[in-house]
Amino acid sequence: MVHGYIDVRGLELNVTLGTSLVDMYSKCGAIEEAMNVFSMMRVKSVASWNCMMCGLAMNGKGDLAINLFKEMQTFNVKPNSTTFVGVLHSCSHAGLVNDGFTYFTDMHEVYGISPNIKHYGCMVDLYGRAGRLKDALQVIRTMPMNPDIVILGALLGACRIHGLSKLGELVVTQIIKIQPLNITGAIGLSNMYAMAGQWDNVCEARSMMIDMDIVRESGFSSVTS
């Protein structure tokens, strides 16, 4: 309705408005509409390209996001730190492990962008999804900052997918150290045990949640004017 109102009023689809529409459609899962808006934008900033790439990645179209990054380079648009978060996220979801490693290396060596914790998190997720847990652990060991709850959560998810309960237990220990009342570790461990049919361990994990008074945060929504 808002987009329709913009068209009816004949408002210019400038960089700010166009990028906002791309972001809105992408987050709503309407990726075709997002791409239509993006293609109609006469002027695009690096934020516009980043938004479209991240939108494609989050909607399971990692290959298209990588193609868009290549197209972005043909237009001589200089990528920034956020661009590579989108690129690495796309490689992770598309299973492009070697490409992801290349882009991660080029980010610093070619474009002069130092990786931050989000980029390292993408690499952990990339290797974890591909079952290369040793590489994921090596990323965590060599990164210049301590892993946060997001990175440890990605590693725990990989342990669950690939049935590595022992490593998962160690990851949960680290998660609890960082955020004792965060449900990610306990519920992830419980689910991992359940998938492996280790029901006694499931009961122990659930008991731990009860003893530590760990509960799921209630969902909520808000409307602002």
Key structural traits:
single chain; 225 residues; mainly alpha; 13 helices; globular; TPR-like_helical_dom_sf
Entry summary:
With 225 residues, the chain is mostly helical. Helix content is 71%, strand content 0%.
Structure in words:
This protein has helices at residues 2-9, 15-27, 31-40, 46-58, 62-74, 81-94, 97-109, 117-129, 133-142, 149-161, 165-178, 183-195, 199-211. It is 71% helix and 0% strand. The radius of gyration is 21 Å and the shape is globular. Helix 4 (46-58) packs antiparallel against helix 5 (62-74) and helix 10 runs parallel beside helix 12 (183-195). With 225 residues, it is mostly helical. The mean pLDDT is 85.
Question: What's the helical proportion of residues?
Answer: over 70%
Order of helices and strands: HHHHHHHHHHHHH
Distance between the termini: 17 Å
Radius of gyration computed on alpha carbons: 21 Å
Number of discrete helical segments:
13
Oligomer: single chain
Strand residues, percent: under 5%
Shape: globular
- Return residue spans where pLDDT drops below 50 for at least 5 consecutive residues: none
**Mean pLDDT over the residues:** 85
Secondary structure tally: strands: 0
Described by strand count, sense and barrel closure, the largest sheet is: none
Keywords: Repeat
Organism: Aquilegia coerulea
GO molecular function, one term: RNA binding
PPR repeats: 45-79
List the helices and strands and how they pair.
Layout: H1 2-9, H2 15-27, H3 31-40, H4 46-58, H5 62-74, H6 81-94, H7 97-109, H8 117-129, H9 133-142, H10 149-161, H11 165-178, H12 183-195, H13 199-211
Helix pairs in contact: 2-3, 2-4, 3-4, 4-5, 4-6, 5-6, 6-7, 6-8, 7-8, 8-9, 8-10, 9-10, 10-11, 10-12, 11-12, 12-13
